[in-house]
Amino acid sequence: MAEAARPEKCVVAVDGPSGSGKSTVSRRLAAQVDGVYLDTGAMYRAVTWSVLQAGVDLSDPDAIAKIALETELSIGTDPKAPSFAANGTNVDEPIRGVEVTQAVSAVAAVPAVRKHLVALQQAIIAGHPRIIVEGRDIASVVAPDADLKVYLTASSAARAARRSAEDSADVKATEADLARRDKLDSTRKTDPLKLADDAIEVDTTGIGIDEVVAYVLNLLNSKVKS
């Protein structure tokens, strides 16, 4: 493993599609730099859970936005034990379930939801000297001035295999669902999933997590002076 960089301040933006290794790499990197970790995707999932609990029609953006603005989020940024709560209820498990996974892209596409959550994310970033932030629009929207911008990717087969191993789902079904979400997230009008012009793309197909973390840590070492 590369020598840990512990700058006084740093913001690292990690973007990419589901199954590319964002969460694991980001959490390990945060621990390496003695920083905190923010999973922005979990924020959208927590809001989606709240929307579903309210029985809101997913084709009604105004109703979705209303629930999003009313939902009180509690966001844990410890890379070793990140945790989320919505309106006082721990949602760590339900936000990873099938129901939320199928609905989250629709909720995340609502401009008012994105505006609200991006503001929260930027406030969290401003409140921590060293933070690793992962999502789909971090480098392009949430933290455009990040010290390091990384876009993780992998083959569709590798991503599906990783994700299905996490939830014991059928690989083919998982690959189809990932393709569906990729299309929705990359074609939405507001803050689509894309590779930022100044981000470094890292293909994690066939590469171990330790190797990926070491590579990204070396990139950070070259960007930020300790």
Task: Please outline what is shown here.
The protein has helices spanning 22-32, 40-53, 61-70, 98-108, 111-126, 138-142, 156-167, 171-187, 209-223, and strands spanning 10-15, 36-39, 73-75, 84-86, 89-90, 130-135, 148-153, 200-203.
Fold blueprint:
Layout: E1 10-15, H1 22-32, E2 36-39, H2 40-53, H3 61-70, E3 73-75, E4 84-86, E5 89-90, H4 98-108, H5 111-126, E6 130-135, H6 138-142, E7 148-153, H7 156-167, H8 171-187, E8 200-203, H9 209-223
Parallel strand pairs: 1-6, 1-7, 2-6, 7-8
Antiparallel strand pairs: 3-4, 4-5
List keywords for this structure.
alpha/beta, 49% helix, globular, 3-stranded antiparallel β-sheet, 226 residues, 5-stranded parallel β-sheet, 15% strand, 9 helices
